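Troubleshooting log. The previous structure file for this entry was overwritten by mistake, so regenerating from the original sequence record. Sequence copied from the archived sheet and checked twice against the printout by T.R.
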Amino acid sequence: MTPPAPVSHFISAPDGLKLHARDYGRHSGRGLPVVCLPGLARSGGDFEALATALANDPKNPRRVVALDYRGRGQSDYDRDPANYSFQVEIADVLAVLTALDCLPAIFIGTSRGGILTMLLAPLRPTAIAGVVLNDIGPAIEPKGLMRIKGYVGKLPQPRSYEEGAEILRRLFSAQFPTQTQDDWLASARRTFKQVNGGFVPDHDVALAKTMEGVDFEKPLPPLWAQFDALAHVPVMVIRGEHSDLLTDATVEQMAAHRQSASSPLETLVVPDQGHAPLLAEADTIARIADFVSRV
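Regenerated output below.
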């Protein structure tokens, strides 16, 4: 039987802008809900495979909510790019999750989503019951950020999804060397959308302004204090084998910081993937589902 499609919700941000969230398993899920927060220029659609699997787990179905930040996916774009900031997006996340009555929750954060989760920890510790950090940690490699800066808001406009797949393959094959043509095509359908007969990125190109002024020659301010604020909840970190944003050394430091926490750090390295793991393979989904069930 085909799993039911997610329900779309459109919720007002504190400043009135409309935000979109996908809601899986709202009426059948038991236990703590799961909240999925995507990367910088990504949308909640990236979690389709994982969210569907968790919501339809025959033993322990979960409610899963996947957000589109402002300026991404089906959420409204902001006229002021300065509002594509962590401070505004944390307020947006809390507004959506409060409106949908799904706190406390287990957070799964990919890249920027993981940063938002760490920033939320000292602000609203009772909102977080467990965390999966997908290819992100308290120390972020400037090399990876420079690569991201090179394409966010600057993707070429393809004439078809097939051409979009080729654009993505050229950009990211070093990070994802075993992806098939079908995989790249599926990625293109999550990255581009049709507007007025053409194809454009599924995010506001003004997001590029969020990385202006960053000095990649200097270490970025670390988030160890925010990570340590998660000491009271279980934490799992996922790293892509080819990641240039999260290093093995940082993962080791994260594990050391968890020695006095309520539980040790759980780790998973996804082979043949870089930044950020897709969370769509059966083995990866099974590991996340096991972690969620124990939380």
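The beta strands are 7-12, 18-24, 34-37, 64-68, 105-110, 128-134, 192-195, 198-201, 235-240, 266-270. Archived copy saved in two places this time.
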